[in-house]
Design brief:
28% of the residues lie in helices and 41% in strands. The chain has a six-stranded antiparallel β-barrel. A hairpin with a 2-residue loop joins strand 5 and strand 6.
Amino acid sequence: MTDREDDVRRLRGKPRSKLFQPTELRDAAGAGRRAHLLDVSATGALVHAAEPPRPGDTVQLMLDGAPRTAQVMWTEDRRFGVQFRMPLTDAQVSTIVAAQTAAVAEAGRRTGPITR
């Protein structure tokens, strides 16, 4: 682990759960577009979008069927980090992660086992 990674983890304060979950991203004008949640914690998320917003922009992400307002803290290529205006509860984070787990399990049932 690098010194920068240690610093980032210390600043976040909450562990992040990795996932790959489609979501809707809305800008301040209400225009929506597809994005993917790459990780999530109570305080923020890592998101990927074809056209990411700019640092400082306020956005809404649909998480577990509810819009969550967040501020874009940084962008790099098509990835960007957001800080939620109102932190999520541990139960809300668990629900978001559980939805990802259920989607992966369902995809596995539809496609069958992976063989080599």
